[in-house]
Amino acid sequence: MFKHIMVPVDLHLPPEVKKATEVAAQLASWQAAKVTVVSVTGTQLGDVNLSKDAIEQKLKDCASEIAEQSGAPVATRNIHSVDVAAEVDGDLTRAAEDIGADLIVVGTHAPRITDYIFSSHAGYLAKHASMSVFVVR
Prior knowledge:
Elements: E1 4-8, H1 15-31, E2 34-41, H2 52-70, E3 74-80, H3 84-99, E4 103-107, H4 121-128, E5 132-136
Parallel strand pairs: 1-2, 1-4, 2-3, 4-5
């Protein structure tokens, strides 16, 4: 049914990301699908946790965990953004198209007051992506 699953991740790894990666691993295993872990990062002065090497390592760690759980091939992709907050939704939507994903598995949080004014990232993907979106809460 699904051949290529994209999993957007926040490299600060909130619990929603962990749950989404577990769901993606299960789906990849059941569907014999490949997985691509995608992150959108920007440069924040003094944030050593998001240096180029740290980003690559965190993505590799996430990919290894999914590969171990699913037995599926897992690739990584980091998208550098000048303004992550403003560009992340469009960047993720374009990335899904570029890699040929037919499913996006994305974690989300319980609705907050700001979500009634501004769409969450998962909500944006569900509304705008051309492929199926599985939102994990």
